[in-house]
Amino acid sequence: MSTKATRSLHLSSSLGGELYFVSSNKHKFEEVQAFLASALPSIRLRFFEAELSEPRARLEEVAKEKAREAFALVKKPLFVEDSGLFIDAYKGFPAQYSSWVYKTLGLDGVLKLMSGFEGEERRAHFKAIIAFTHDGSHVQLFEGIVKGRISDEKRGREGFGYDPIFIPEGYDKTFAEDKHLKRKLSHRYKALNAFKGFLEELTSPSDVETKNER
Ligand code: IMP
User: Fold this and answer.
1) Alpha helix segments (H runs only) across 75-178
2) Labelling 213: which of 57, 137, 145, 185 has CA 20 to 30 A away?
């Protein structure tokens, strides 16, 4: 059996149909749950609520660190997710500082930073990195990006975080005005879709065949 097949088999059996999502954010869990319930109903998703440390590093590094830290708590196959808002006019800021900016400046502060910027100058994107580990040492990353712009004012009551001031490309509503739009287009949805492909491969019939061939 190839190394890849052995690894895949090992991963798939360690998963055992159960997967933990570790986060302190219940809104994120709801979005993850809504996606996986319809995309991969065979997987039982569990929520483990924990505040994980957030080193001031690139999202990829933060997500990897979080996955390893989470594994030390849960000791089961799990994934975490780290997101950030990147504003073109500020060379991608706040990126890894998104949480800090949200808590200190808030949405009004960000809108103030954007005053004087118009049209294309208001371009921004969200990025989400999912980090999966089954053993606390190997970590796989999955990325999702949604492009859009910062609105002129806060609009909508759905979602969380920057949703009331983010309008996805090609639309006029903020994510907070239309949760279906968010579920269809968001950075989290795209990262989850990539992750889903990986999970499907782990549990695919060809994997079972490999198992039977042993
Ligand atoms: P973190 O991934 O929890 O570290 O999120 C960083 C910051 O981005 C926090 O202030 C979140 O509220 C915000 N954020 C994360 N995901 C989203 C989202 O889907 N919509 C809007 N804001 C988000």
Assistant:
1) 98-104, 106-113
2) 137
Helical ranges in the chain per DSSP H: 3-15, 26-39, 59-74, 98-104, 106-113, 179-185, 187-202, 205-213
User: Cβ–Cβ contacts within 10 Å for residue 34, how many?
Assistant: 14
User: What's the pTM value of the predicted model, to 2 decimals?
Assistant: 0.90
CB atoms within 10 A of CB 42: 9
82 touches ligand 1 (CB under 6 Å): yes
Show me where the domains of the chain are located: 3-213
Task: Name the one residue in this structure whose structure tokens are 């990025």.
Answer: 127
Distance 98 CA to ligand 1 centre (A): 7
Ligand 1 closest atom vs CA 83: 2
Whether the CB-CB separation of 123 and 147 falls below 8 Å is answered with yes
Assigned CATH for 3-213: 3.90.950.10
| pLDDT in the model for residue 208 | 44
Whether 52 and 66 have beta carbons less than 8 Å apart is answered as yes
Whole-angstrom distance, CA of residue 98 vs CA of residue 210 = 44
Q: For each successive 10 residues of the chain (214 residues), what is the average pLDDT?
A: 54 75 96 93 93 89 96 97 97 96 97 97 98 96 98 97 98 96 96 94 58 40
